[in-house]
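Dear Dr. L.,

I hope this message finds you well. Following up on our conversation about the binding site, I have prepared a predicted three-dimensional model of the protein together with heme C. For your records, I am including the exact sequence and ligand specification that went into the calculation, followed by the structure tokens. Please feel free to forward this to your student if that is useful.
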Amino acid sequence: MKNFTTNKAKLRILAMAILAAGAAGALFAELKAGYYTSKDSGSIQQTLPTPADTSSTYEAGSYVLQAPDLAEGEGLNEVYANCMTCHSVRYITMQPPLPAAAWVTEVTKMNKVYGAGISDGDAQKIIHYLQAHYTPETRKK
Ligand code: HEC
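The resulting structure of the complex is given below.
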């Protein structure tokens, strides 16, 4: 029994020696092939950058300042003058048609909550305008 264990240990040492010799041999072969010489280190080849194309032309259309067109009508100027300082007037058209009372609340909210600073006279005109064109009964498009 004791002999058997000793043989097993010997076999293990032999296996490790063979592995170590193999690894050292492989490393030596790599060195001989020149992969690890200082001459080659750090010379990873990259593809050349694509040369800039100087023949390209670029065009930019005019910047859209007033999208969309709101319905024509009394108070439209006041809307443009007061409702575009913070966001687009698209905020009006992207709402579902709001009931008349909701537009009063909206304009009041812009003034009181967000500090739009719209005069009472302009606010009244804007509310009338919105009620005349953007409620479920009055909205055309
Ligand atoms: C002082 C800046 C300011 C002004 C001026 C302003 N708004 Fe607003 N408005 C906001 C802010 C802030 C929001 C909410 C945040 C967001 O959605 O961008 C908003 C949102 C809205 C909305 C979306 C619904 C809601 O309540 O969030 C509507 C509709 C709207 N505004 C309409 C108007 C109208 C009509 C006017 C002109 C009477 C106006 N706004 C003027 C700041 C302003």
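In brief: The pocket of heme C is lined by residues 82-83, 85-87, 91-92, 95, 106-107, 109-110, 114-116, 118, 126 (CB under 6 Å).

With kind regards,
A. P.
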